[in-house]
């Protein structure tokens, strides 16, 4: 649901950009949102991205129907960068070819009555480094490089945790559906069984009703 | 505040956050209204505000306040589970106004990633590393909380699966009994009927 939301939202604002990662450091941010998409609805999100920034869009459907959704990503000129129909989960990385507002939409228009819960994670730019090296004369100390590697490891742990949580939610949703369906089916079948068997007996009895004056032998 | 989406004037937009207990969630938003004359979104519309409502997994309301066109709200989750954050504008205009919509910028941050602002001020080497380490410890605590939450959820899931399993087994047994007893009743009933009708 990267460190859940805005992976590097903290440092990016005031950290002075490095020579090499000028644009990326400025724009590094991640937004992750879980929202409910009603049936026959479309929800679009917009983000302003600077040219040359590497961005990643990842989405997953958590509950609802066949757990799939349409997704579409367009650049400021309206060119479709990514378009997939009825996908359950996908991840798409691209580099912004020009400045402007990029738009991505999730559509549930193919579904008539199931609403879906969709999770997406849109990451813009790379995270700025923990220890900026612009006013540094020496290499990172052991302490600092240990910090950096722990930070990277924790970021990936949190990322895996998010994915695991989503998969578990999806699995639980399917299991709850199954439970409900089994309950309804049991009740329905019991009723049908009783109605059909009692009806059969009465139907047969009605074949031999006394209204007929001549006894007609029932062919076997 | 980069990511934004559009919504109707009186439309309520909700997002779901699945968080473990004792987690601080902070949200930043900015709302702009579409101006028909200028054909653009106004930077700030006077009197425009947003109702922010946060509901806990047990449907209790944790937060329900009216904020201005730009604001920050936060809440701490008491229970672990899906919390629903809903935003609705306080616009009193009726929906009949054509082409009227809102642009909502939103940024939600959960739990651990609050990098201390004072890190950049730390000129002292030791202090900076110290603060980074504290931040890492906070991240690890968050990971640990998430894992506890995961354990709770797995237990719930397992119970439900076992319940489904035993439901199916019980139903199969009951169905067989019903079938057998109905079968016996049918044969008996028909036999008595035929005997009464002197067909047998």
UniProtKB/TrEMBL annotation, chain A:
Cell location: Cytoplasmic vesicle, COPI-coated vesicle membrane; Cytoplasmic vesicle, COPII-coated vesicle membrane; Endoplasmic reticulum membrane; Endoplasmic reticulum-Golgi intermediate compartment membrane
Domain of life: Eukaryota
Topology in membrane: Single-pass type I membrane protein
SUPFAM superfamilies to which the protein is assigned, alphabetical: Supernatant protein factor (SPF), C-terminal domain
Main location group: membrane
GO cellular component, one term: endoplasmic reticulum membrane
Signal peptide: 1-30
Keywords: Cytoplasmic vesicle, Endoplasmic reticulum, Glycoprotein, Golgi apparatus, Membrane, Protein transport, Signal, Transmembrane, Transmembrane helix, Transport
Bilayer-crossing regions: 182-204
Alphabetical GO biological process terms: protein transport
Domain GOLD: 42-124
Similarity comment: family membership: Belongs to the EMP24/GP25L family.
Biological role: Potential role in vesicular protein trafficking, mainly in the early secretory pathway. Appears to play a role in the biosynthesis of secreted cargo including processing and post-translational modifications.
Protein name, entry field: Transmembrane emp24 domain-containing protein 7
Organism from which the protein derives: Bucorvus abyssinicus (Northern ground-hornbill)
TrEMBL record, chain B:
Keywords: Endoplasmic reticulum, Membrane, Signal, Transmembrane, Transmembrane helix
UniProt cross-references to PROSITE patterns, sorted A to Z: GOLD
Membrane-spanning parts: 168-187
Localisation per UniProt entry: Endoplasmic reticulum membrane; Membrane
Membrane topology: Single-pass type I membrane protein
All copies of domain GOLD, residue ranges: 12-110
Gene Ontology, cellular component aspect: endoplasmic reticulum membrane
Domain of life of the native organism: Eukaryota
PANTHER family named in the record: TRANSMEMBRANE EMP24 DOMAIN-CONTAINING PROTEIN
Family listed: Belongs to the EMP24/GP25L family.
Protein name as annotated: TMD11 protein
Record lineage: Eukaryota, Metazoa, Chordata, Craniata, Vertebrata
